[in-house]
Each structure stands twice: as structure tokens, then as C-alpha cells.
């Protein structure tokens, strides 16, 4: 449960620091707006509050729904004076009827009570329930950019004051909700002169609302259909959430930070597993399974390592009704789980190399905002852990695995990445060095670490005594050289972010559970039963021909759904090719193939289906990769002087700079870029003004002018540059 | 950490209840035997203690080992008067040197201190360390069956008295240790008249030790080699543990009840996954991934269900250094995790059937003795969860899956099982009914539940509101019919127990990571380099021919290891076929194939390798299955009168009885069979005298005389029999 003070911390993190947010005005608890006004009357308001504050009402309404439907409340945030006619609103939202929610719904759903309800109650809604809430914002609030608006920070005995832009930023910062709907109640009333409804002209002359249409254009309204309402370019977080849930990839779960990976997404992970597992077997890596429980004694054995993970470790302390004698950790990664046994198993140089991998779940109890696939408290991954006699072998393997990771992204997901080495600051806790592949999300201009492969050096082997006698020198002890490397379900999130569009998901063909969806089209009432059957048969024949050629094809022959509905259904899910067969196609022994990535049509003769579809799938893959590669390349800007650095970031670029490779300079880059962004640019909640971190030092330095010793200088500090490095805002 | 009082509970559970065990004699803490005798002098001893108690010393010794070796202490349990000469002992145990352990070792390894050391300190040794401990028992203790022996129950301020048989039973009850070694110190001393050692004749005339050889035959001594020392028929628990660890299938882990599944065992699981996953895909089941965390609110929603699991649920209550606001459970199974979302996703009959599966880990924090693969606190499994519109569909699926489970056992693991339905008492918590396959472990005569498939009926759908409108009747609500079904890594344990022999594991060919191991043989110093090379080449050619034919073959061409060493190495690991190629075979263009299951030899011409080996692998599979099937069949005894029931159990049989199918009668069978066993038979720690439970009501009732209504009576209660049921002692 959020408390008023943690809420205020959250608001501060969102840079919502208007007058009164940090120190609410205290007063007696109130139950309605009249009491509230009375309580504040004469109280001294916080310094920043200029002008008369605007009082608001926050209503929680309940539509009439069949009992089998989940509770789907509507929250209306309106100025006190606005006439929020519920009949008109119900009509506008296409709901049967709206009534005030009862105390049970307020307490059960919003963990609040009458009088205390405010927009901030939204943060108390369980994640699993959020997509069922409709949020309505009075257009007069949206239009009023100057006034301070009074709200309760969860309790009705306190009041804070925020501006409308801050209110909207807060709502957007919450995960899992549908986009809010801006409603012009005055216009609604004039539109809906329903007999039962009293004429609902605005009561107050102060209303200078923009027309609802304009407000709606800025903030797309939504009624809950199958399609995607949010625009990728305008409201990326909502877009991402809608694409994931409406494509049936993901479901929000009632434990925060955890998500359900549905079959449509799980197939992607399955494809990655099949490819990668096959490749590492060739490298003689064997699969195994270690426990997910770690005793604290073992977990804490490598100091640097545990310092990196300790704040995120989840602890089991109870079983049944008994307290455990010692708390037991859930693995955040398995170095310390495995290596005591490596020490036991590795007795002689003949026991080396030891190469193990496991596909498992790990737990990192992040307190930052969770995000499906990208930052979750439990996630699936593989972790490889190898031990070698020689440094060179560990070097080579770390790179070989990194290359496999790149191939997963490029060859399966059609996502370009850059191979490189992490800076000292950004390397894995306890590693000798870390290599990574780095991706790029064009919509936000942020880099993303796509996978890492570490040469652990001898750090862990010394700590855990993984050592053998030198086979060449008697009585000389050699510590093993180790690697560890991991690839997680984050892959899926990156794939969605890079390829998705405003119609939904765009699935790279090689990982799509269905590669071709065959849809019977053009059947009308005038067609005979034989004609219908002929078309359906043609669809199934086409699918069979494709399946026989190893292509994953299905027919959508559901009755009672129009072709248009089906087109939309499969577009949202991103199926690479839609194959349409109608009466005319049947005559011409042809089919219509529609590419999901470009939405272009082509005609494929039935006789050439398997061969042409197969090559079209490859073309789609190559085109998707080429497009994303061009976009990433165009946004990797070579920056030669600091003045260009922050403007490039603000322009959604990743910066390539000649760099001195010093941690102090890296810190400075982060601080300076954060400060300058905040100073120079208007705040934009969608592209947060975070500082730039080093992403990697690319292995391929040849794309840039050679570094000349003593001549090429670091862009930030002016010291001698050592290399080119990628810096950017990142996930 | 064990405390004295929990130790006493453990001893009571082992039926070690000798005089003084339940209420130790309290005294001042002592540091040596002299003080101890003084402390007890004049104290009134517990009632049962007759005769003068025997005082003992428990010594912890440390052999000199290279630093890279793990700590491997030797514990000597001897009568106080026995001269435990360390030099002789070291020689006998083939150790370099033995010294007294220091305080660090006592506290770090045994969690004890000088003066408090006793055999009971063994229960404090971490599981991972146990296999490194050598336990030596003075033969004069073993021989003295009458006296009460004094020991400290973990603290030196208390004394309990046990008989020697109870001491040995206690030691055997501990998991993870090598078998203890019985040593006749008197004989050692006479054998080793080493110059430095003082002549070590027995000091006390009371010694009537059996010769060490006899003791050793009864309790096989062990020096830590690669092979299996314990005999399957004599000491099944030690045998099982040795087979698992020495075949590199499993490693003990430092969190109790958790184990490391090493690649040699994981490949078995992998093979099962590949087969079963392919089969359920044909049934249109899709894979997905649900979180392992469950909120208590959701977990507790189905009352019967949670009652079944609550005592074993592990709870996360802390993350980093913060307490969670609400404890979160780790899934023991996923019904309540998944079904709230089934309710959300299933809105219309068109959303049915919904068929999902996940391969994952689950946690059941059992407080009973853990056992690798069979009863572990975390285990791997698949769990399928389907929802249907009609009862019939759920019935059919539950059975279809059960048949797949049977096929996993029979077709992959060569293990016979019986398909049947569980009694009401034994069904899954919350299910409508449970079907299961039941296996049989000949060595212990116990049944084992091998997998279960449940028809959940509408119990969960009513609780979670998984309902649709009847497609045929307007406004009629239909609750879904559900199934859930699971197969776990228990499979591996059953496979090992059924097939293993006194040489180690016997791997069923279809799941063995290596099916054929090719070993160059017969090379001596008189052979030329060319001859050596020719043999090695022939081995690699043979392996290649096999691999090309889809057979998993490898060459063991390690230098410095004799063929005999290699034979033993792969026999312990159970590789189905050993292929030997020596100089004479080379001449004859032949090979020698040795079957692991029967240890028989045959000659296979090089030209027919692929074909003959392939068919030999099938023969081995069929022979293994046939042998186990015959053994199971021979031990399923049709019992017609109660007097034969317990004798059959004691004879390691499973009883098939005409049964009334009433829970009260089932309870009675358990109680009666337990009581009669204890009364009639001598106690045997290896075949525990537990009562018989119902295993299943076999689907195939045709093997037994038809049940005649009103005529055929229940064997236990004499009421009308409804069916034949399998009863037995079970895991």
C-alpha cells in the first residue's frame, strides 16, 4: 500500500515538485468539496501557490456489466464546478449505465474511502486490474495550464497543489492503464439532450475549454477495442503496453513487477532457445540445473559481486507456518551458487574445461519502475558458466558467445546490435571485463543492453578456490579462468519496441508462431454453398502446401467474423504474411499476399505458393533488419565537440565520441548531460531527461577516423582519447 | 543448526528411544572423558540403563592433503579404553597422516566444540560436505550389543545412553555420508608394528571384538574410489546415494532438500521434455510462462486446495534490506496462479478450449526426509492446465495425458507402470478425480506415484468464475471443465532405482547422453606407434559411423588411463554399450560390444556396426523393460484374505485386493498393516514398517476374477467389493 509520504517521493522522482507537493497542507479530514473548501479557508497556502486554487472532484463510477466481466470502474477527474452528467458520459463511453461506486469498490479496488479519492488513488490499483480502469479527465482541467489544482495525497486530511501538466504526467507515469480520455462535458451535454438528462450548460463563466476534438487529438481517447489506440510516436509507454496486451503476448499479473508470458510471446523465446541451445552444444557446453536457493553465507562470499546485487535480493524466511532458521536467498544470478561445486569438481587440469549452462528463472527485486520484458522482478534466461586453464580460452569464449548473441538478435529477431566492451564502471560486479551487445530503441532514442558475456578472470576462482596443479610446473597452483554469459526474455521486449507500429506488433518471420495466416475473403450472400466450400478448401489446401514446405501456416476459418475483423486481429498480432483467397483469386488460381511489415500486396499463383512464400519470408526478415539497421546507423552520431552532445541526445541519437576511458570522466558526462538537458529543453515525460551512460566501446573502431595518440582528445574532458565509445540515454 | 531437543525428536522418529534418550542426564559441561565420568559419578541414571554404561571418545582427525582438496575429516567413534593409534589408522585408510582437528574445523564443519563432539555432530555437517567425511567405528562398539553407551546429544552438559545397534541405525539414517568403516584397532596394532608406534595391545579385558573381516563383510568398508561400494540389496539408501553421486548425475547442495542436477542426469530430463513437448503440441497445448510468485490472497482462494499445500509453502518476506508489505508465496503448483487469468481470458465458448503448459520449477518445503529426485524442496516439472466446455473433453484429456506419461516411462525409461484412478483419500487437493501411473521399486518393495493427471471438474472454475454463456441456451451460465497434469524430475530417480545394479547406473538407451562408448584396448609396450594410431583411428571411425547413423557415440581416448579404469568409469555411469577395439579386433575387422544391462559380450563386424548397434540398443531397451515388467508383475500379488496381506508386504509385494472403495476402510488398512508389521517382524531400518496406502484402482481390471455384486467381499472389512485396488507401502 502506498502511503502519502511514499507518494510524495514518487512525485518528486517524476519532478512533480509544485507548490505544496513536498509539504502538504494539513487539515481535518473532509468528505466532500464543500467541507474541503471550508477547511482550507483562511489556512496559509504554500509559498508557490499563486491565484485562487481550483477545487476538483474525483468520482469513481461503475458501469453496468454482465457478472462474468471483471470490475471495470470509471474514474472521472473534473473541476468541482463541471456538471459531470453520468448519462451523457455513459453514452459517450458506450457503457450501459454508470452509477457511483460503493464503499467496497473504493476500498477493494482503490484502497481508499469516500472523501479521500483523488487521481493519486490510481497508484493503489493492483497491476492486474489496471487495464480495466477507464480514466476520464475534464477538458477544462487539461485546458487550464496556469492554475494550481487542489488534490488529496491519498488522505482527505491533507491537500497538495499541482498544475494540470503535472497531473497528466503523473497519470502517464503509471503502468498498466489504458490512455486517459479527455472529455468536454459541456459539449457532451449539448450533444446529448436526452430527455431524462437536465440541460447541462456550463455553470461557471471561467471555463475556457479547448474543443474536445483538439484535446482528443493531442491525447488519443480510447474505447476498449482490439486495436492499438496509442501512437508509437506520441505516447510510447501506452503504445508498448497496448501492443503487448492486445497482441496476447503478455498479461499483467497481480504481483508487481511480474508478468505472464503468453504463448504468442513464449514462442519467440522458444525459438531463441532452440537456436542458441543448438549452437552452444556445438561448443561442448552441457545443460544442467542448479537450485534457485542460495544460503546467505555462499551468496556473500564474493564481495564486489554481492555489493552489486544485495539491494535486489529476495529472501525466503518462512515455510508453512515456521520461520526458517536462516533466511535463504533466491538467486539473482548463479555465480556463487555454482562455483563452490566447480571447486569440488575441478581437481586436475584434466577436469578443464568445464562448460555448463542452465535455462532458468532468476529474481532481482528491482524497486525502479518495472517494465514488461525489460525490467521484471522474475525473468527467464540462460546462464552459461565455463572454467578454463588459460586466459586466452576465456577470452575467446566470451567473444564467441557474444557473437552468438548478436546472431540471435540479427538472424532471428531482425534487430541490429553493436558488439563492444563495457567500461570499468558498467561492467558486471566481480568480472574481469564485460562484453555486451547494445541495441537502440528509435522511438525513445535510448540504448539498451541486449545481452552480456563476461570474462570473469580469476576473481571468482581465487575466492572459491577453483584451482589445479600446473600440468607443466610441479607444485604450481593455477586458478581457473572463468566466463559467464546470459541472454534473457528482454530480447522479446526489444523486438517489440524496434519493429512494432501503430497497427500493433510486427513479428520477425523466423520467430513468429504463425508465419502465414490464410483468410477466406469476398464471400457474400450471393455465393452458393459450393462456392463457399471451394474457397474454404482452397484456403486449407494452400495452408497444407505451406506446412509441407516447413512454413508455419494456419487458416482463420472462424464463422461469424468478417474478413476485416480478422485482418485487424492478425495485424495486431503481427503475423508476417496474410494470404487472402476470394472467389476471383480462385478463378485465377492465385492468392493475395499482404506483408505485415510494409502492408504491401502481391499476387502469388497457387502453383508457386511454397516457393514464393518461403522467399518472401526471407525478404521480410532482410527488409526488417535493413530498415532497423539503417535507423540505428543514422542515429549513431559521431560527436566531435561537447556542445553537440546533449543536442544529439535530445534528437534521440546515440553519441559516438573519442573518449579518455576514465571513470571520473564517465561520471562527469552523466551529470553534465543530465543538467544541460534539464536547463535547455522543455520537460518531456516521454523522453526523460536522464544523463547519458557509456553503452560500450565498440569492437569495430574502424568506422571512425583513427585515434591519434596525443592528438585526438576526449570530447568531454579534453584529455587524450583512447578509443571511440558509445554514450547514450539507456534502459 | 540442530539443537539437542530437535536431535532427540529425530532419534525418536528413528525409534531410537533407549534409556535416557528422551530425557538426558544434565550435568556440568565437560571437556574430556575423565571429567565426564566424574560428572556422572553418583548421578542417578535413567531407569532403563542397566549395567555399567560404556564411555566413549569421539575423535575428529584431519588427514594431510594437498591444499586444493576439500577438507576431508575422519571421525573415530571408539570406546574410551580402545587405543586408537592414528598412525595405524592412517595406513589402513591409505591416508598420508592424521592429526587432531583444530577448533576451527570442529566449529566450521561440525558446528561443535571440543568436549561436545559426538556421533550426533554428524547431523550438523552440511550436506555438500558429507561425502568428504570418513566415519570409523570401533569394532568393539559394534560387537557390544548389550551395554548402554554414553554420548553427548550435541552439548557436553548432557548425556544420553543408546545401544550400539541404535547408534549404527542413526548413522545410516543420515543422508550423504559414505558408509562407515568398522575398524578393529587391536588387530591394526598387531599388523602395523611400525617403529614409531607404541605396541597397541587392547588395554581392557572386556573386549570381545568380532574379527574386523566379519564386521567389514556385514558393513562394507569403503575407501573413496570411483566405484559403488554399497550393495543394492543390503543397503539401498547408501547404494542410491552412491550411484547418483559417483555416476555424476547429482551433487548434494548446501541448502537442505535441494540438489544439483548434473548434465548426465539432465540429459534424461531433456529427452523426456523433447518427447512429451512434441506430443502435447499435437494435442494443441501451447507453452507459456507464469510467474513463480503468488500473493497470499490468490493462493488461499480455493480452500480444499490450499489446505493440501499450506504446510509446505515457502514465503518471501524480504527484498534487499526491506520487509515486503505482504509475504509472497513461491508456487507449489500453479492452479491458483493461472486461473484468475483463465477467468479473464475465457469470455465466450469460442475461447474454449484453452490449453496451456509450462516447464518450470516449483517449491514444496517438505519437512520429511528429503531424497534426491523423489522428494526435493525445489523440483522441475511440466504442468498442463486446460479448460473445456464439456465434461467429456476433460475426461478424455486427463486419460490421454496419462497415456503419454505411461509412454514416457515405458518407451523412454524402460520402466513399467500401472494406469489407474486414485482413491478419494489420495486424490489431488481440489480435484474432481485424479488419475495416476504407479511404479514399483523392487529393492524396497514400495510403490511410487510416477505422475498424475487430474480432472478438476468445475471446482476451480466455480471458485475463480471461469464461465461462459451456454452457446445453446440463452442466458445460461456454464462453468468450464478443467484438467491439470504434471510430470517431474522424479522420473529420473525411479529410473535409477529400477535399473541400477551393484556396478552402478544402468541407463536406458533412449535417454542416455552417450549410448555407445568406444574404448581402445589391448595396447601394450610392444605395440608400435603405427599400431597404436591404427587402433585409435579405428575407434574414431567406428564412432563416426555410429554418429552418422544417429547414434550418440563417443571415444574415450584419454591417455594415462587403463582400459580397466575406463570400463569401470562408464559402467558406473551406465552407458548402454561399450565397444572395445584392440589389435586382434583390428585384424579381424571386428569389434567387441559389451551390454551394460547384462554385461554380455558379442562381436560386431566393423561393416555392420551402425545397423547392429542400432538394433542392439533397441534390444537392450526391450530387455530392460521386459525384465522390470516381469519383476513388477511377479510382485503384484492378488490377495484374497487379510491374513496374507501383511506377509505379502513384508515380502516386498504390492497387494491387489477386492476393495469396498471406502475411505474409512482405507484408513483401517493403513493402521492395521502398520501395527501388524511392527508386531510380527523384526525391525528393519531399510524396509520401514510403514502401513500400506492405496496406490490406485487400475483401469485394467480384467487381469483379475470378475467382481460379483454381493458375492465378492472387501479383503479388509468384508463389505461388498467394488473393484480391485492396488495397496502397498509407498514413497
TrEMBL record, chains A, B:
An example molecular function term from Gene Ontology annotations: aminoacyl-tRNA deacylase activity
Ranges where the Aminoacyl-transfer RNA synthetases class-II family profile domain occurs: 266-508
Biased composition (Low complexity): 200-218
GO biological process: prolyl-tRNA aminoacylation
Catalytic activity: tRNA(Pro) + L-proline + ATP = L-prolyl-tRNA(Pro) + AMP + diphosphate
Enzyme class: ligase
Any single GO CC term annotated in Swiss-Prot or TrEMBL for this entry: aminoacyl-tRNA synthetase multienzyme complex
InterPro entries: aa-tRNA-synt_IIb, aa-tRNA-synth_II, aa-tRNA-synth_II/BPL/LPL, Anticodon-bd, Anticodon-bd_dom_sf, Pro-tRNA-ligase_IIa, Pro-tRNA-ligase_IIa_arc-type, Pro-tRNA_ligase_II_C
Family according to the record: Belongs to the class-II aminoacyl-tRNA synthetase family.
Name of the featured protein: proline--tRNA ligase
Naturally occurring in which organism (per UniProt): Mycoemilia scoparia
Amino acid at each position: 500500500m502506498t502511503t502519502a509520504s511514499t507518494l510524495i517521493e514518487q512525485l518528486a522522482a517524476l519532478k512533480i515538485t509544485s507548490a505544496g507537493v513536498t509539504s502538504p497542507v494539513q487539515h481535518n479530514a473532509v468528505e466532500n468539496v464543500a467541507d474541503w473548501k471550508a477547511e482550507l479557508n483562511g489556512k496559509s497556502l504554500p509559498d508557490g501557490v499563486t491565484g485562487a486554487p481550483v477545487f476538483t472532484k474525483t468520482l469513481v463510477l461503475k458501469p453496468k456489466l454482465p457478472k462474468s466481466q471483471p470490475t471495470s470502474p470509471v474514474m472521472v477527474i473534473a473541476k468541482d464546478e463541471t456538471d459531470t452528467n453520468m448519462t451523457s458520459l455513459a453514452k459517450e463511453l458506450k457503457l450501459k449505465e454508470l452509477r457511483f461506486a460503493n464503499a467496497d469498490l473504493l476500498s477493494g479496488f482503490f484502497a481508499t474511502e469516500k472523501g479521500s479519492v483523488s487521481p493519486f488513488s490510481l497508484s493503489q490499483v493492483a497491476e492486474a486490474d489496471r487495464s480495466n480502469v477507464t480514466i476520464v479527465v475534464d477538458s477544462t482541467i487539461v485546458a487550464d495550464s496556469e492554475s494550481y489544482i487542489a488534490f488529496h495525497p491519498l488522505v482527505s486530511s491533507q491537500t497538495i497543489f499541482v498544475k494540470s501538466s503535472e497531473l497528466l504526467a503523473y497519470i502517464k507515469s503509471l503502468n498498466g492503464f489504458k490512455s486517459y480520455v479527455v472529455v468536454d462535458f459541456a459539449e457532451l451535454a449539448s450533444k446529448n439532450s436526452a430527455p431524462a438528462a437536465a440541460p447541462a450548460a456550463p455553470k461557471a463563466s471561467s471555463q475556457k475549454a479547448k474543443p474536445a476534438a483538439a484535446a482528443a487529438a493531442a491525447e488519443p481517447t480510447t474505447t476498449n477495442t482490439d486495436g492499438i489506440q496509442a501512437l508509437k510516436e506520441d505516447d510510447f509507454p501506452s503504445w508498448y503496453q497496448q501492443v503487448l496486451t492486445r497482441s496476447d503476448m503478455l498479461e499483467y499479473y497481480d504481483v508487481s513487477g511480474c508478468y505472464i508470458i503468453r504463448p504468442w510471446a513464449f514462442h519467440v523465446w522458444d525459438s531463441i532457445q532452440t537456436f542458441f541451445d543448438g549452437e552452444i552444444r556445438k561448443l561442448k557446453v552441457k545443460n544442467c540445473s542448479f537450485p534457485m536457493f542460495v544460503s546467505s553465507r555462499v551468496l556473500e562470499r564474493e564481495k564486489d559481486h554481492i555489493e552489486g546485487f544485495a539491494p535486489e535480493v529476495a529472501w525466503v524466511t518462512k515455510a508453512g507456518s515456521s520461520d526458517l532458521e536462516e533466511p535463504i536467498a533466491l538467486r539473482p544470478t548463479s555465480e556463487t551458487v555454482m562455483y563452490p561445486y566447480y571447486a569440488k569438481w575441478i581437481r586436475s587440469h584434466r577436469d578443464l574445461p568445464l562448460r555448463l549452462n542452465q535455462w532458468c528463472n532468476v529474481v532481482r527485486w528491482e524497486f525502479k519502475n518495472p517494465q514488461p520484458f525489460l525490467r521484471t522482478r522474475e525473468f527467464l534466461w540462460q546462464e552459461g558458466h565455463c572454467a578454463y586453464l588459460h586466459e586466452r580460452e576465456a577470452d575467446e569464449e566470451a567473444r564467441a558467445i557474444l557473437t552468438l548473441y548478436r546472431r540471435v538478435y540479427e538472424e532471428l529477431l531482425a534487430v541490429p546490435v553493436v558488439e563492444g566492451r563495457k567500461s570499468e564502471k558498467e561492467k558486471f560486479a566481480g568480472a574481469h571485463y564485460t562484453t555486451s551487445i547494445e541495441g537502440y530503441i528509435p522511438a525513445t532514442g535510448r540504448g539498451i543492453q541486449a545481452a552480456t558475456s563476461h570474462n570473469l578472470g580469476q576473481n571468482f576462482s581465487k575466492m572459491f578456490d577453483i584451482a589445479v596443479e600446473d600440468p607443466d610446473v610441479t607444485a604450481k597452483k593455477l586458478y581457473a579462468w572463468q566466463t559467464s554469459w546470459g541472454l534473457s526474455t528482454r530480447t522479446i521486449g526489444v523486438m517489440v519496441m524496434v519493429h512494432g507500429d501503430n497497427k500493433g506488433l510486427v513479428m520477425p518471420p523466423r520467430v513468429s508462431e504463425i508465419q502465414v495466416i490464410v483468410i477466406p475473403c469476398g464471400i457474400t450472400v450471393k455465393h452458393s454453398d459450393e462456392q463457399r466450400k471451394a474457397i474454404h478448401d482452397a484456403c486449407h489446401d494452400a495452408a497444407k502446401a505451406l506446412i509441407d514446405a516447413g512454413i508455419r501456416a494456419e487458416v482463420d476459418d472462424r464463422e461469424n467474423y468478417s474478413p476485416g475483423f480478422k485482418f485487424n486481429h492478425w495485424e495486431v498480432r503481427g503475423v508476417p504474411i496474410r494470404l487472402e483467397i476470394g472467389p476471383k483469386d480462385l478463378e485465377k488460381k492465385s492468392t493475395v499476399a499482404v506483408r505485415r511489415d510494409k502492408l504491401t500486396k502481391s499476387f502469388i499463383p497457387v502453383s508457386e505458393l511454397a516457393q514464393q512464400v518461403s522467399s518472401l519470408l526471407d525478404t521480410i526478415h532482410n527488409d526488417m533488419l535493413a530498415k532497423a539497421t539503417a535507423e540505428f546507423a543514422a542515429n549513431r552520431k559521431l560527436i566531435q565537440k561537447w556542445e553537440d552532445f546533449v543536442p544529439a541526445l535530445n534528437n534521440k541519437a546515440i553519441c559516438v565520441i573519442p573518449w579518455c576511458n576514465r571513470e571520473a570522466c564517465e561520471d562527469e558526462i552523466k551529470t553534465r548531460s543530465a543538467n544541460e538537458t534539464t536547463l535547455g529543453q522543455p520537460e518531456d515525460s516521454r523522453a526523460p531527461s536522464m544523463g547519458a551512460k557509456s553503452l560500450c566501446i565498440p569492437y569495430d573502431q574502424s568506422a571512425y577516423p583513427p585515434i591519434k595518440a596525443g592528438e585526438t582528445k576526449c570530447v568531454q574532458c579534453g584529455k587524450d582519447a583512447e578509443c571511440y565509445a558509445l554514450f547514450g540515454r539507456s534502459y
